[in-house]
Amino acid sequence: MSLPLHPILKQSFAVIDREIGEHNFSPAEYAVVRRVIHSTADFEFAQLIKFSPGAIASAIAALGRRVPIVTDVGMVKQGVASLVAQTFGNELVAAVEQVPVAPPGKTRTETGLLQCWQLYPDAIFAIGNAPTALLALCAELPSAPVKPALVIGAPVGFVSVLESKAALAQTPVSQILVSGRKGGSPVAAAIVNALIILAWEASQES
Q1: Average pLDDT for runs of 10 along the chain of length 206
Q2: Which of 96, 121, 152, 162 is positioned for an S-S bond with 126, CB 3.0–4.6 A?
Q3: Is residue 128 part of a domain?
Q4: Angle (CA) 163 166 172, round 5°
C-alpha cells in the first residue's frame, strides 16, 4: 500500500521536476531534495543538501526497525507526527520538551538532546533549529560506542550555525547536511517525511 499524494502535491512536484531538469541525484536523494524544495519553494536547496554515503539506506533500515526519531524542537516533531502515525509508529521525542529549565550556561534544547542521546543512541536525530544541540551531539559522537542511524543537520540562522554544520561534517556518522546558513524546522521535517515515505514504500515491496 503506497501513501496517496494529494493532487496539489502532485502538481507541485511536477513543477519542481520541470524546473530542476537534469540532475545527478539518485532517485532516493531526489525524493528528499524535491520534498525540501516543495516545503520551502527554494531551489537553492538542490545545491545545499549533502548526503553521506549510505545515509538514506541507513535511515530506511532504521525506520523499518522503528527506532525513535528525536527532534530538537516541537515544530519538527509536529511536522512529522502525522506521517509517523500513518506508517511505522516510531517513538517521537522533541528534545526541548524534556527539560523544563535550562542549566546555567546551557540551552534547554542541547541539554534535552544529550538526554535523548543517552536514552536512544541509535535514533534518527533531526536538528532544524538549534545549532547548540547539534554541536553538543557532535562533541559526543566520535567516541560513542553506538552511533545514531542518521543525523539530519539543518539548523538555520547566523550564530553557531556554520560551526555546528562543520562539526557534523567532520563526524563519523550517517548524515544529511544542509550546508550554509539555510535550514529550519520545515526543512528538517521535510527530510524526515521523505525518508519515511521511502522506507514505507520499501517495506511494501518486500
Answers
A1: 78 95 96 97 97 98 98 98 97 96 92 96 97 96 94 97 98 97 98 97 86
A2: 152
A3: yes
A4: 135
Residues whose CB is less than 8 angstroms from the CB of residue 152 and which lie 6 or more positions away in sequence, other chains included = 124, 125, 126, 127, 128, 175, 176, 177, 188, 191, 192
* pTM attached to this predicted model: 0.96
Nearest to 57 by CA among 92, 26, 85: 26
CA-to-CA distance for 161 and 138, rounded, in angstroms?
Answer: 13
Catalytic residue among 38, 77, 108, 182: 38
Assigned C-alpha cell, 52: 553521506
Looking at the structure of the chain, the number of domains it has is 1
The boundaries of the domain holding residue 87 are: 47-205
38 has catalytic annotation: yes
25 is a domain residue: no
CA 37 – CA 34 distance, rounded (Å): 5
- The CATH number of residue 130's host domain is 3.40.50.10230
